Amino acid sequence: LESIQELLGPGTSTLFEIESQTRINLAENNLMLKRYKKVLENLEVVYENAQNPEYYLARWRWKPRCLLGLIEVWFALGDFDKAESYLSEITDILWLNEVPYKKYQVNTWRLRSQLLSKQKHFQDAVKEMSRALSQAKKLKNPTLLWKTHQSFGNLYLEIDTDKAAKSEFQKAVRVVKIIANGLTDADLKMKYLQSDTIQELFNFSRGF
């Protein structure tokens, strides 16, 4: 980030755009590694910047992705009230119905399902997760697909449907392996497959 700022100079909309994207990418990478403090350090800056009129691109392009990351990390940390507050905020963003933001719809429905599950509304949670999975399949986005299958597996575990849970985890693993096989950098492939999130998924796919 410091080198970007030196290159572009202060006070430019391009800088705000690149900074927002860079911080979100760093946060998403750290989320895979379960480095939650670093996730929050970056996403909270993006969230604050999105309130600044000079960061207009941050509001339109990056705020939904930032909110989704904040929901994910607060779920992981067990603060469901904070997760719900950010979920309410992203639900109010009307342009998520438009291309290319439909991918954010999938994650919004997936996370709403997780919240419903924590609130013991399991039937509604299954309906919402089914909607997320259906959209993920239509979009043919591999990352969306494996994360939704994984979330469905976790949901089935919560309602004591172990066989269905294992099936969803195995479907997620199949997609992850396709992604990994497409990575030509051997070091990157190893880091991806050895990340805490992916290893946890592999373990669940083998059974409980």
What does this structure look like?
The protein is an all-alpha fold and 208 residues long. The protein is 79% helix and 0% strand. The chain is built from eleven helices and no strands. Helix 4 runs antiparallel to helix 5. The longest helix is centred in the N-terminal third of the chain and has 21 residues. The radius of gyration is 18 Å and the shape is globular.
Fold topology:
Elements: H1 2-8, H2 13-32, H3 36-49, H4 56-76, H5 80-91, H6 102-118, H7 122-139, H8 142-158, H9 162-181, H10 186-194, H11 196-205
How many helices in DSSP terms?
Answer: 11
- Count the strands? 0
How far from one another are the termini? Answer: 43 Å
Low-confidence segments, ≥5 residues, pLDDT <50?
none
Instruction: Decide which structural class fits the backbone.
Output: mainly alpha
Q: Classify the beta-strand content into a percent band.
A: under 5%
Query: What is the percent of helical residues?
Result: over 70%
Q: What about the largest sheet?
A: none
**Globular, elongated, flat, extended or rod-shaped: what is the shape?**
globular
Radius of gyration: 18 Å
Average per-residue pLDDT, rounded, comes to 87
The SSE order reads HHHHHHHHHHH
What are the defining features of this structure?
208 residues, mainly alpha, 0% strand, globular
In short:
With 208 residues, the protein is an all-alpha fold.
